[in-house]
Amino acid sequence: MRYPSHALRRTLSLAVLCVAGWLTMLPAQAGVVIGGTRQIYPAQSREITIQLTNDDKKLPRLVQVWLDSGNEKLTPEQSDVPFTITPPVFRMEPGKSQSLRMVYTKEPLPADKESAFWLNVLEVPPKLENGENQLRFGFRIRTKVFFRPQGLPGTPQDAAAQLRWSLLKTEQGSVLEVRNPSPYYVSFQDVALALGAQPDARLNHSDQYEMVAPGGSQRYLLKDKVGALPAGAHVQFSMINDYGAFVPMQAALQP
Known about the structure:
The protein is mostly beta strands. The chain is built from 2 helices and 19 strands. It holds the Pfam family PapD_N.
């Protein structure tokens, strides 16, 4: 992928842009919105289109986009993924949209399971025209991109139903473990252990529940230690489907 000049790259890659002297802070508000909370790239497609919109009706944005394979600290120049995305740098006028073209460059990826990547969108607000020195904040949004080989068995929602949940006792406390035997990634909005009709042992976890990879597993630490499980104990969770909707589900605990 070709990138803009070094000076422009450096400007865009800074999360905070400072100008010495008296500082005026611009409103800390992101304006660029990505169409969809995740992107699905079918392996048989020549390309996919991703839509961005500048929701700010007054100010333009300077935007840089790139992909990474999970390391959010990599710069666009360091990222090595089998995709190109164009345009990599552009200006978005107030209230306008921009289409991104993402193309798979055919480097080998697993054919028997999904692969996950991340789309990065960095936006920088414009310089005010009043001549004052300014402190300008850049905003970066990261969203998932799933490369989906053709002919995978089942569906992503089938994958959520196939998850295997178990309760483990560790030195850190009670842990809820989930295993994914399917070829699809499964993402969660929330997860809870229900010892009765309602969840009553919430996870001691951040708001961002880790997705579970194909053939992989994840562990979630519970707030409280759990002793003997009563009859009917189960897991309640919401998976996030291809359209970003939350689908409530429940599953029995494996012995």
